[in-house]
Amino acid sequence: MLLIETLYTGDAAPTARLTLDFDARTKSRLRTQLEDGEEVGLFLPRGTILRGGDRLLAADGRIVEVVAAPEDLIEARCADAFALARAAYHLGNRHVAVQVGAGWLRIQADHVLETMLTGLGAEVASLTAPFEPEAGAYAHGHHHAERGATEAKIHQYK
């Protein structure tokens, strides 16, 4: 099994690809496969969230490109900025990962949240696309001292 423990920031071109959905890209410990079927073990620093386009350095020296897999999403659009902000507030209040675009919000498919968004006046549509949500306010510098935490946490992805 190929071991990957390091993010790569150099200029070398990737020689392998690792396609993962968002939930898998939030795991620092994961057994999975490259696109060619080779088995890999990810052992990344805790709290690492991989994004499409990130590159990893494998133990054998290969550079592996992370690809954000298409997944089932809901896209919400609203009549005006106030309604869109209100929808974003209610999603955030539920600690839902949200991808923000120009005039739209995307979340992972969830019929309960879809019903909530419709009730708030949003027009919702299902689509399949890579999911790249905001890192959130907790991505940098927020600590949970009451639990003795020493690192930032995104609540949904501890």
Automatic annotation (TrEMBL):
Keywords: Chaperone, Cytoplasm, Nickel. Pfam families: UreE_C, UreE_N. It comes from the Bacteria. Residues 2-64 form the UreE urease accessory N-terminal domain. It is found in: Cytoplasm. Its main location: cytoplasm. Belongs to the UreE family. Involved in urease metallocenter assembly. Binds nickel. Probably functions as a nickel donor during metallocenter assembly. This is Urease accessory protein UreE. It comes from Zoogloea oryzae.
